[in-house]
């Protein structure tokens, strides 16, 4: 305050391009930030390529973040390319910083202020899934995180999020309840034919390709999970065919009799109606269940359409387990 009173300029950056407001936000100096907000030029902030919102999120200072949001700073201001290049993941949003820190209060503030969860090259949901943070995952999903994202460096045929949930039914159900494209997991060009394992001369077997779910879940170190994962998935699909490779592994699993019964018998009309309603809604609306309030349906039916009976995290949270 004294420096500003005697003519100090809050809009002169240091050699790194950061302004005083950036440093105050990053260090969590709330009172200094409060003084700097009204005297800092927005044009100077844009020129710097980074918002103080990024800095407050990176430093895990929700009190500073709240001050900046109340002052009208844009929560969707994206890092300039010259700043992003210093991060291996090419992150852009303030939300990504908060999610990476596992900073739930900051994530809540940003999402409530309108932060978009699908703006970064590496999806914010992917980071939360890696952490196994149920609260963070649930929060992102409720605010429209895309469960069907594809990781750029991942050669999978099915949306990438699934690979983090194979050992955790709670997370798996979260994805499926919010519209994960389960049907792609049962795609296979071989069908009932024998799967040929082949490599190309000069290439390893890990050459980038469109890797099918059956190729992943039948790996020797994942086979023991196949029965449970496939059984859960069957709650979210119509009649499906499983390929010979997946079937050979499933037949050795404890849940095979139940899986076989589902695969070889017609699905119930109730189940098919739920799938049809969800398809008519579309995945964008499933990602934002607030749209359900506009449907002229009883609350029990809305809960059924949203698979509330399989919302394991919500059920455990309501009983106080977490």
Automatic annotation (TrEMBL):
> Pfam families in the record, alphabetically?
Ank (PF00023), Ank_2 (PF12796), SOCS_box (PF07525)
Keywords in UniProt for this one?
A: ANK repeat, Repeat
ANK repeat residue intervals: 48-80, 90-115, 120-152
Among Gene3D superfamilies, the record links this protein to: Ankyrin repeat-containing domain, SOCS box
Q: Which GO terms describe its biological process?
A: intracellular signal transduction; protein ubiquitination
Q: What InterPro entries has UniProt attached to this entry? A: Ankyrin_rpt (IPR002110), Ankyrin_rpt-contain_sf (IPR036770), SOCS_box (IPR001496), SOCS_box-like_dom_sf (IPR036036)
Q: Which SUPFAM superfamilies match?
A: Ankyrin repeat, SOCS box-like
So which domain of life are we looking at? Eukaryota
Q: In which pathway does it act?
A: Protein modification; protein ubiquitination
Q: Where is the SOCS box domain?
A: 264-311
Keyword Zinc included in the entry's annotation: no
Which protein family is it in?
Belongs to the ankyrin SOCS box (ASB) family.
Concerning PANTHER family, the annotation shows:
ANKYRIN REPEAT AND PROTEIN KINASE DOMAIN-CONTAINING PROTEIN (PTHR24198), ANKYRIN REPEAT AND SOCS BOX CONTAINING 14 (PTHR24198:SF176)
Q: What is this protein called?
A: SOCS box domain-containing protein
Q: Which organism is it from?
A: Mus musculus (Mouse)
């Amino acid at each position: 305050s004294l420096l500003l009173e005697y003519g100090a300029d809050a809009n002169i950056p240091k050699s790194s391009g950061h302004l005083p407001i950036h440093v105050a936000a990053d260090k969590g100096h709330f009172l200094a930030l409060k003084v700097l907000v009204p005297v800092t030029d927005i044009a100077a902030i844009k020129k710097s390529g980074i918002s103080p919102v990024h800095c407050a999120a990176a430093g895990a200072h929700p009190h500073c973040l709240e001050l900046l949001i109340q002052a009208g700073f844009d929560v969707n201001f994206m890092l300039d390319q010259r700043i992003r290049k210093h991060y291996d993941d090419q992150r852009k949003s303030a939300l990504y910083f908060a999610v990476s820190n596992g900073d739930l209060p900051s994530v809540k503030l940003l999402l409530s202020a309108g932060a978009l969860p699908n703006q970064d090259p590496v999806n914010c949901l992917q980071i939360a899934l890696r952490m196994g943070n149920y609260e963070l995952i649930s929060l992102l999903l409720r605010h429209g995180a895309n469960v069907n994202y594809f990781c750029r460096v991942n050669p999978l045929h099915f949306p990438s999020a699934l690979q983090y949930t194979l050992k955790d039914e709670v997370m798996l159900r979260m994805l499926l309840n919010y519209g994960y494209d389960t049907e792609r997991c049962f795609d296979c060009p071989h069908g009932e034919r024998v799967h040929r394992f082949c490599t190309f001369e000069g290439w390893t077997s890990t050459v980038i390709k469109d890797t099918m779910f059956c190729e992943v879940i039948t790996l020797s170190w994942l086979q023991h999970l196949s029965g449970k994962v496939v059984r859960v998935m069957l709650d979210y699909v119509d009649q499906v065919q499983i390929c010979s490779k997946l079937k050979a592994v499933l037949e050795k699993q404890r849940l095979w009799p139940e899986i076989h019964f589902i695969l070889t018998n017609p699905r119930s009309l109730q189940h098919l109606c739920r799938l049809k309603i969800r398809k008519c809604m579309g995945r964008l609306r499933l990602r934002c269940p607030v749209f359900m309030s506009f449907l002229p349906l009883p609350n029990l039916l809305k809960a059924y359409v949203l698979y509330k009976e399989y919302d394991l995290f919500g059920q455990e949270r309501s009983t106080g387990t977490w």
